[in-house]
Specification:
globular, GMP Synthetase, Chain A, domain 3, alpha+beta, 111 residues, single chain
Length: 111
Amino acid sequence: MYNSENVQEELIHSIQKTIEDLLDKMGIVAAAEYKEEAVVQEVERDPAPLVFDIDCANPGILIGRGGQTLDCLQYMVRTILCNQIQLDIPPVVLDVSSYKQRRFQYLRNLA
């Protein structure tokens, strides 16, 4: 029987590899890192989303106007993962250089 912690670690590694492979195919040199304590939204979900922060030299190219490129990249990663992994996976959230975290804090303070 699988230990749920080992399954979680394998899932995180698989997601990280998928993100980095996709970025590599796009010609972007970047590294994805799992952020366990990241908060990018007010609503709490069950299961909690897995947040990955992408670090690259030019974050603007991955964020796009108003975060549209980042949203599309996140959708592509989710679609790839659903086709690769036959398990129920929690939501996957991509962030670039903590853009979504900063945006969330800004909007929260503004409200």
